[in-house]
Write a structure and sequence with these properties.
This protein is mainly β. 0% of the residues lie in helices and 32% in strands. It folds into two domains: 1-37, N-terminal domain of TfIIb (Single Sheet), CATH 2.20.25.10; 58-111, Roll (SH3 type barrels). It is elongated, with a radius of gyration of 20 Å. Residues 46-112 form the Protein YjdM C-terminal domain.
Length: 112
C-alpha cells in the first residue's frame, strides 16, 4: 500500500515519486512534498464593512447591480437570505426574489 499523499489538485490516489517530486498521472500536477504547507488556513469571506460572512447568513446589497444579459437591476437595500459562500470571482451564490439564482461579490453586500 502506498503511503504517498493524494494529489492536492484532483485528489487522485495514483501519485508516484520521481526523485524528490510527486507526480499525479491523472492531472499531471507536480509538487514537492517538502515545500507543501502543513495545512492551508480556511478562507475567510468578509463583507464591505469587514464583517465575517458564513453560509446561511443574510446580507443586504449596498449598490445597484445590473444583471448581465438582461434589463433587470438588483436595487440598493435588497435583502438576500440564506447565502452560500463559494470560491471564485463571485463569492456568494444565492437566490434573489423576483430575479432568481445568481452570484454576487462580497464587496457589494453587508451583513444584515
Amino acid at each position: 500500500m502506498s503511503t504517498l499523499p493524494p494529489c492536492p489538485v484532483c485528489a487522485s490516489t495514483f501519485v508516484y515519486e520521481d526523485g524528490a517530486m510527486l507526480i499525479c498521472p491523472e492531472c499531471a500536477h507536480e509538487w514537492n512534498p517538502s515545500d507543501a504547507a502543513p495545512e492551508e488556513a480556511a478562507k475567510v469571506w468578509k463583507d464591505a464593512n469587514g464583517n465575517v460572512l458564513q453560509d446561511g447568513d443574510s446580507v443586504t446589497v449596498i449598490k445597484d447591480l445590473k444583471v448581465k444579459g438582461s434589463s433587470l437591476v438588483v436595487k440598493v437595500g435588497t435583502k438576500v437570505k440564506n447565502i452560500r459562500l463559494i470560491d471564485g470571482d463571485h463569492d456568494i451564490d444565492c437566490k434573489i426574489d423576483g430575479i432568481g439564482a445568481m452570484q454576487l461579490k462580497t464587496e457589494f453586500v453587508k451583513k444584515a
